[in-house]
Amino acid sequence: MDLFVFIGFSVVLLLIGGFFVYFLKSTLNVSDSTSIDPLPEDENITESQDK
How far apart are CA 3 and CA 10, in angstroms? Predict the structure, then answer.
């Protein structure tokens, strides 16, 4: 009996995790994680003046 409860609980957790990952991946832009935006020129000037 305990084994069936453990297996059922594991399946429920996997389903919840699967839905979470599925909807999270569908809303995030995966290709954006590999690109780095350049700093604007205004920030470069103010940073060099502060040092």
Answer: 11
Place of tokens 């060099």: 48
The count of residues in the chain is: 51
- CA 42, CA 18: separation in Å to the nearest integer? 43
Provide the whole-model pTM: 0.52
pLDDT tens, 14-50? 999 999 999 888 888 777 777 877 777 775 555 555 5
Single-letter code of the amino acid located at 23: F
Task: Give the separation between CA 25 and CA 19, rounded to whole angstroms.
Answer: 10
